[in-house]
Amino acid sequence: MKTIYKLLLVSILMFVLNSCSDNDDEKNTIPIGPEIPELTIAGDEITVIVDQEEFIEIAQGGNGYNVFSLNPDIVETKMDNEQVIVTGKSSGDTFIILSDQSGQYKKYPVTSYYDKLTFDQEHIDVETSAGKPSAATVKVLKGNGNYSATSDNDELLSIEIVGNNIIVTALEEGDANIIVKDSKGIEGTFSVHVTLSTNPYTEAELAEIKNNSQERYVFEGYKVELNRYNTFINTTENGMNKYGWSAWDEYLTIWFSGDKSVGKKGKAFLSQFTYENYTTQFVNEPAILEIIKNNGIKIWAVYSVLKDDKLSYGYFCTKINP
User: Fold this and answer.
1) The Pilus formation protein N-terminal domain covers which part of the protein (predicted)?
2) Is the CB of residue 265 less than 8 Å from the CB of residue 299?
């Protein structure tokens, strides 16, 4: 009988211990939640036009999203529900950082660009003299850098690029279109009109000439002043005014019609020869002469000769009367 009680007691004890062990296992089990998907966006690349917005869908992630730009000067970012809004601020490349509440972080490249080129001028007029090229500059105000440029009239002008500046040097009279392309392949065009001028001096140069009252003749950079080695000419011949200088067999002679008041004269001719530069020899060549100042004692005049597509020019200051 005692043996039966002992067996019954052991059985009860084994049952109680086993029940406690099962309860402990249940208490120590860690619940497993749903798997968090990898943080990703829709699409492979992000591009945005400057001054516009691009909306990027979040394909999947752990919710509670945040985003920021590594360079706000190029793009700015903000969240709108589960959309990333990227705003282009300037041309360039940078990255945005996207995160969710589960601690996932992703880095995405972004390109911001201009979709058209903008110039400070859409058309330029360039005045040039024969044999004396003139340059003008058009600046790219909005573009993506690394510019190249071509012309549809290469004989008319040449092109140089310095940073954002397109420098056009006019060689001949005519019209041309300049096609500019940037690093993104975006193209823009501006037009050029070139006129040939017979006025060889700028306004600043004319002012400098008029402010100097020294008697002198200048032609193609060769300057002659009144001294004991030369003679200044101031007379009339065949009804025309005759001015110039001579020294032995060197000379410069200018004839012009009309009076000696300020303005362009109807007819003018030039003859010239010096050993300084004998290739500029002229014999009774038609010229354009303009008196630019008359103070009652002296006159200041500029003159030019177009020969073989080259403009030769000079000026003089001398007494009105002999």
Assistant:
1) 44-108
2) no
Same domain, 108 and 161: no
DSSP-assigned letter for residue 228: T
In terms of phi and psi (left: phi > 0; alpha: psi -120 to 50; beta: otherwise), the region of 238 is: left
Number of residues that this document lists for the chain: 322
Domain that holds residue 169: 118-196
Q: Is residue 24 part of a domain?
A: no
Consecutive 10-residue averages of pLDDT for the chain (322 residues): 46 49 49 78 90 94 93 96 94 96 94 97 88 88 97 93 96 94 97 86 91 95 87 94 93 96 94 75 93 96 88 93 79
CA distance 119 to 188: 8
Q: What is the CATH number of the domain that holds 144?
A: 2.60.40.1080
Q: How far, in Å, CA of 108 to CA of 58, rounded?
A: 12
Predicted TM-score (pTM) of the model is 0.65
Residues 6 or more apart whose CB falls under 8 angstroms from that of 106 comprise: 39, 40, 41, 97, 98, 99
Domain-embedded: residue 211: yes
Distance CA 200, CA 212 (A): 18
Residue 164 placed within a domain: yes
**pLDDT at position 149:** 97
Split into its structural domains, the chain has a count of: 3
- Decide if 165 is inside a domain: yes
Q: What is the DSSP letter of 280?
A: G
